[in-house]
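[09:14] KT: can someone run the structure on this one? pasting the chain below
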Amino acid sequence: MGARRRMGETRGEETIADRESAGFVRWNLSPQWDGSRCLKNMFWTNDRSSVRQIAAPILLREHGSSVRPDKDVDTMLFPSEEELRESFLKHATPALWSRPAPGWRFRTALESTCSEGRADWVWAGIADNWPEGIEPEAAELLQQPTCSRILDVLKPQSVRRESLLHARSGVAATTFRRWLIALVETRLVDDLGDGRYVLGPQFAWPQIEICSFEFKLGNWKRAFYQAKRYRSFSHRVFVVMPTKTVERVNGALEHFRRFNVGLIAHDPDGSSRRILPSVKREPISRTCFIRALGMLLGQEEVSPAIR
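[09:31] RB: done, structure tokens below
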């Protein structure tokens, strides 16, 4: 069992990098059973089985009867939410959250940029040839808020007047004109003359399913609140947490069902279990959905094995 150590301490000439290269992991005792408190105690170990032995006495000493070592320590079997996410991405398969058909292609993104709040991971299954034929420069414009609002109003054949587009854009006339010209130059919008516009050949609504994920070790209420926000651009949303944390949500599962937030339990051994599904529904905001398309357009396609 590795020596117990506080953050930043070294022994002799030994450094943090030395311990990390030797396979030791720095554990932060942050059970977050009420979503706010965070212990300052940290220790090093290269033996995961020793976490409970070391952590339980510290938790009891710091918080007494307010902590349940048998449960709260288990939420720390992942040193961080980043490790929970990495373990999930390594072991979970799309069948856990979607129904991908043969021939689907996949794109993924870390830390979404297309809505309020940032999803920890975004997965997209694509059933057609999108984005074939779309220029890379279109990705930046699709993610731009003013551009996404303009595109949301336009149709492939139904003509829209410039005055309507300006009113819906919500920005000053000079700003609106700058972005409208950029959209026309990239052929995302067609200028028919006389202040009339339609969607251009560079823009198409793809056959796509977007699923977004929020990873949390302990604070399920915060995870639930954040996941709800991702419905603005996603067809399905999920919260992923360790099993012991998921067990505390049992009394609130109706809230997850009501807002169509799926729930998945994932543990350090790589196993995952879907507690609640997320039914496929259209994204709440088409402008956020357009921005999500731009974000995914800027990502590399991945194989099913890599997801």
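[09:33] KT: thanks! Residues 50-63 form the longest helix (14 residues).
[09:34] RB: yep, looked fine to me
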